[in-house]
Every structure is written in structure tokens, then in C-alpha cells.
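tool=predict chain=A
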Amino acid sequence: MDIKALDKALQEIVKQKAELGKLDYNNPKYDDLEEKLHDLEDDFQDEYGEYLEEVIQKVHDQYCPDNDVLLPIAYLGEGAAVDLEKLPGREAKLMLAANPTRLVLKIGKDKQETVWTAS
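tool=predict ok
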């Protein structure tokens, strides 16, 4: 796995999401940026989806085995809500982050822990 290419592709998606987030739905550039973002996400899924889904499955098995594994892009941004086996009832999210590519487990508002880093 080319970890640098993975991280570069992930950073590009994050950048496009940020650009899209700055625009109003009525902006004439919105639809084009949204389409470009979807294309980037599709390419990312085609190229890295299987690899990341295996990694995410291992993290789920360790921390939140009762949750289904989603597509990797579902963990971007705010992340995906998960139910922690060892801390039932606590609000938790699993997030895919870039630079370096990693999975971060955020528990409540204050605690976060990197649970996997691409290497």
C-alpha cells in the first residue's frame, strides 16, 4: 500500500469538503464542486476502500464490535457514531483523519485517542 498516495488522496477529499462547506447551495460553483467531491470519494473508495475497510473492521472488533463497518468516507469529518463495548452509553465517534492517515476514537467532548495509523 502506498501510504503517501493514500494520505494525499484523503487530504484532497478533506480540502474539497472544506471548500464545499464554504459555499451556499445557491452558489453557481456548488454543484460542480459537489460533483468533483463525489468523484474523488468514488476514486478513493475504488483505490483504498478494501484496505481501509479491513483496518476499520479490526478497530471495530477491538472497540465497538456491535457496530457495522461503514464505507471509509463515512468516517471523515465528524466521524461515525459508535457504541463502545467497554464504555456503554458514552458518546463516541470513530473518525478517519489525514496527515498522517489515521483512525481517531473520540469519546465525549474532551477525550480522543489515535487507535490506528497507516504505516
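Strands lie at 80-81, 92-97, 102-107, 111-117. DSSP finds two helices and four strands in the chain.
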